[in-house]
Amino acid sequence: MEYLSWHLFSSALIYHAAMTRTRFPHAPRSGKLSAAVSIGEDIPTLSWLSPFKVPICLAGCLSDQKPRGTIAITPKSARLFRRVMSTPPVGGVLMRMEAEDYTSSSVNDASSAMFTLASPAASMSFAMAPKRLAMFAYFLQLLALSASHSNPKVCKAQPGTKDWPSEAKWESLDKSLSGQLIKTVPPGGVCHPSQPSYDAAACPAVQEGWKLAKWHTENPVSVIMDNFVNDTCLPDPKYPCSGEGYPIYVVNATTAEHVKKGVDFARQNKVRLVVKGTGHDYLGRSAAPNSLSIWTHNIRGLEFFDANKFTPKHCKAPIDKNVIKIGAGTQMLEIDEQASLRNLTIVGGGAGSVGIGGYLTGGGHSALSITFGLAADQIVEMEVVTASGNIVTANACQNEDLFWAMRGGGGSTFGVMTSATIKAYPSFKFATVSAMLGAPVSSSDAYDEAVTTFFEESPDLGDLGISAYYFGLKNVSGADYGVPVPGKINGLIGSFMLPLIDSANTSESLLAAVNATVAKAIKGAEDQFLTVVTPKTFDDFWAYYKDNNGPLDAGGDGILGSRLLDRKSLTGNRTALKEALIVAPGNSVLLGHLVSGKAAHNAKIPGGSNAVNPAWRSAYVHTVVSSAWDPLDSAGKEKQLDLNTNVYTEALRKIAPDTGAYINEADLYEPNFQKTFWGANYPRLWLIKKVLDPLDVFWCSPCVGNEGWEVVDDALCRKW
Hints:
By secondary structure, the chain is of the alpha+beta class. The protein has four domains: 6-147, no CATH class; 167-295, Uridine Diphospho-n-acetylenolpyruvylglucosamine Reductase, domain 2 (2-Layer Sandwich); 302-426, 2-Layer Sandwich (Uridine Diphospho-n-acetylenolpyruvylglucosamine Reductase, domain 3), CATH 3.30.465; 429-674, Vanillyl-alcohol Oxidase, Chain A, domain 3. It is 29% helix and 22% strand. The protein contains 22 helices and 24 strands. The strands form six sheets. A seven-stranded antiparallel sheet has the order 19-16-18-17-21-22-20. Strands 10, 11, 12, 13, 14 and 15 form a six-stranded antiparallel sheet that branches. It has a four-stranded mixed sheet with strand order 6-7-9-8, covered by helices on one side. The protein is globular, with a radius of gyration of 27 Å. It starts with 5 loop residues before the first helix and ends with a strand. Residues 1-150 have low confidence and may be disordered.
């Protein structure tokens, strides 16, 4: 049998068995089936599963075949979901369906039997009546038969092979797009005499632009981290240059219809598909070799609606707040400015170059998240192009599973978001306090104590509605960071913020809280620190944003690691916290983002919930570390990747083993990423992915449902 589309076929049969009395022939009267082994989180029920239909593909599902039919899945038919695990099956078997030992008498006499479905992403245990067990045993035989025949390696189409679309097909796609298909030119090629795009006069401008995110945003394929395109064409002639790390073609989309045509082409021709908005991506999901890219940067537009003037499609009640409909390519700086002109404020990203696509689908933290919730919590409606090429509207009243998954389940996974409609809030004054602490490098212990105190005090500050960004820097020039201390120092910078919305929140209350925190941080070592505390109040959030939003650095090779820290991890064991904050940053900057609290913990979300990592609902500080290496230094890269995963980020995991991490700013090689990035939401996300994208038109790493594929020599191939 050709590769079995187990994620659809099995789901349909399982739920079919729960809903019908179909008898399958030739089931063994007795047998010995291996007992299921399940580990992980207890999940009480599948009551969250909204009704939807599962297409049945009886073989393959690798081409654009039409499903043989559909089976309705409802909460009633879902039964119990007891355990979840994220380890692949042993021996390359696509799926195991297991039950306890049984005989014909036990099948006839027992009131029920436990039955387990194990897949690469999850293990599900169901209580099934004995009259259904024969059907499952029969299906086991089918699986054994399909698994007993080795299947050839199945990969996405590669240039130079018979599967790769002909030039005529690409030309036809370009024609259908009215000329919006771009043949990729390596962005750094202007600096390389061997490249057709070589232009010595243009090279210096590219070299300067390469250092800033804005330049990469405006290029159809370039991204802000060089290692995610394998350093294949840096703007420096001393390095080699080719286009091997980049997509082959780019759909320069300006409409949802352009996106649809790109998705359809990739699906029909089995071409790897990637999605790029701005390239502001720390996990490398925005580019891939031998692929077709959909560039959403030019899907622009802002439409403003007053409170009670926007009703999501097929919903009965209007939204009782101002909302803004935003095109997928619109960036934060533009959104914030235009909102401010209408005396409005949004929950948006800290960098002006950030686009809404990856930001919203990943969850999105903000200096205003403590006050209003995460960015994903603000979405009331989305327009999405699905893997099947449908342009759909998703909200709390239609396409609910897609709506749930797209708000926190990650980008480039369930579809391409072409617009989002989000809540906006009346403008308010915004108070800030900057606290800079500098100590001689010789006072390292006092510095470490101060850093620990800043983190330890964060939950109490967050409960007061205060957000903050912390920057811990060791052995740096004080003058470079505004701390007037000669020579090298260990520096700690805290930027504290408070929206002045109610009478309890004042610029004076913020300053008092920061002064108290600084006093605790340097207690007993006052003579070793120079501290500078500067309060400032802005007329609105836009005024603050404009004053504090400089160009974002880009270029270079590196990777992040992160952890969401809750009150227990921040206040439960000061010694362990201090040790983690010493180890985690290595020789780089320690970043602490106090961006979760009150409103994020108790968010009122359209539809009742979303797919944001549940750890956000108890976390206070999103803590980030980083590692870097020189271009094309494979040994240095391997060393830093190992340190980042197994030393720096591991130090944070140890103090917060039960929380998780923020998918958009995390370790690409995070162990058990399914649990770390999505926690208890992963099983539902995985199922939605398999239903909405059975062919894996969208694939990225680390992303929901990616377990069945791997990259082999720049080719994306099935693992089993």
